[in-house]
Amino acid sequence: MNTAEGDQPAEPTAPAAAPVPAPPARKGPTPGPRAPQTAPVTEGSEEFGRVEDDGSVYVRTPEGERLVGQVPDVSREEALAFFTRKFDELSFEVELLEQRVASQALSPEDADRSVRQVKASLADAKAVGDLASLAARLETLSKLVGEQREQKKAERALRVEEAKGHKERIADEAEKLSGGNDWRNGANRMRELLDEWKALPRLDKNLDDTLWRRFSTARTTYTRRRKAHFAELNEKRDSARVVKERLVKEAESLAESTDWGGTASAYRQLMQQWKAAGPAPKGVDDQLWKRFRAAQDQFFGARDAATAAQDAEFAENATKKEALLVEAEALLPVTDLNAAKAAFRGIAERWDAAGKVPRERMKELEGRIRKVEQAIRGVEDEAWRRSNPEARARAADTVAQLEASLADLRAKHEKATATGNDKKAAEHAAAIEAREAWLAEARKAFDEFSG
Length: 451
What we know:
The structure is a single chain. This protein is mostly helical. It contains 11 helices and 3 strands. The protein folds into 4 domains: 45-151, no CATH class; 156-233, no CATH class; 236-309, no CATH class; 389-450. Strands 1-2-3 form a 3-stranded antiparallel sheet, covered by helices on one side. Helix 3 (131-178) packs parallel to helix 5 and helix 5 packs across helix 7 (282-329).
């Protein structure tokens, strides 16, 4: 018989309960079962245990009685209470496990492991109480854990199926991007797709590896094409830099030219070549453009200043020509041809000496002076026509020919009438009428020469 030192009875050795993993941290307080307190023997504890005179304590189970320990030198109630408290501790442990399983604070694997450990501790538990009910509660827990395991399995299968769809979409989109030329947004999107892939659960190894190879190959293809593009772009920019450096030198060499038309045309050609060259490296391109633009501004600024001075001169010339027009237009209508011609020659000399006028005034002013000139020339042409002996002779000859033709037609008309040939007579009459009209016009023209 084991005895403890002093007046306190020694506690018998009992198997320790399997440790239960602590639940994960939860938001807010989570109420739990109260820990068993030291208390006297509860009512009905004798139903599940008894105490021998020597302090041996037995627990009653469906399989029969089993010795759980011995507490000598104490009352039966105290000996039974000692092992009843051990049962309360086991009951508390089961209750805590029930709560954790119900709240799914434990994974099905951890929960199953904990249930099996507690079950094992019940086999030879040094405690008095309804051990059968605890075993039944643990069996219920085992079924619940099994259901949770199946639920988790189904949920994982669903997540895997969804992940499969997501990964197939990622692979499809990556392959589409790999053949495109959106080098900026495409690179950003590839990074986003990679982050999405990493956040997804793994699939069956073969399927996951197949989809990953598609995605990885697409990324590699896109990256290789993107690097080749920018390498080619850099090469083109270097070539553009050489061309633009030459264009800048040409532009600067023309900046002080005073050949306004030719140089302006040259600058237009340089600008076309500049645009065709394409962009140079960013910083270099900006510097070259500033130099090119400065040379242009210098030339066109000087041209604009010269044009402004020329415009002022042309405006003054227009004022002079307006005064000459007043003199010229006063010559009309022409009454003295020789005086008008002499006066107009003097006006024309001063007109030419006055110089150029603004382009928008040129048509108006030239039209007015040409109108005066044409009026004087018209009078001169008319006077020449009247005094031209060759023209007078031609007019007289025309009159003579028409008179002879008319006399012949009249004779034919009389003959046809006398012979009764009415048809011929009518034809000759019509011809006579036409000849008489022509003769009247010819005589009028001849009379003008006579006048």
